[in-house]
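Supplementary Methods, section 5.1.

A reviewer requested that the exact input to the structure prediction be made available. We therefore reproduce it here, unchanged from the version used in the analyses.
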Amino acid sequence: MEKGTSSWASSGSSYEVFLNFRGVDTRHGFTDFLYHGMVGAGILVFRDSESLHVGEEIGAELLQAIENFKIYIPIFSANYASSCWCLRELANMVECTLKSNGNKEILPIFLDVEPVDVKLKTNLYNQTLSKRQKTLCSEAESWQKALIAVGKIKGWNLKKDEREASDVNSGMMVVEADGDGD
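The structure derived from this sequence is encoded token-by-token as follows.
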């Protein structure tokens, strides 16, 4: 393989599900349960710590690879909006879904946040995005639109550490059912 190319970008179509999450909030808890539960059920899941290798550059290649996924699962947490990278991925997922003619789906999980937070009707994400706009971040408007759009999608509204295992199992059943319709 040539230097600068990565196996996950070139084989992005082999994955079925893309997990989008703020690592410091959920990586070693809920996201870990969800990832291992789906992998155990035979679902091909992309998660950065397993799918990106040390030394690989994260950037445009990852955003391009997102186009190859069928199901996107953003896991919204308290600090999600503080990650420019999470927001970039989310905006890309929304764009890919809109262009897919119904062939791609976003299944949001609201972990210790409410859909109204994601729809920017409270200060939780609003304050962070306001700071981004003040620093002249040109992407902030697309991030706002993506958050509002995904906040309107029915998803799972979960409280951290509350029934995580059963919530993960019920979520996997939905992902498996969606994946079976190919």
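The CA atoms of residues 29 and 161 lie 8 Å apart. These observations are discussed further in the main text.
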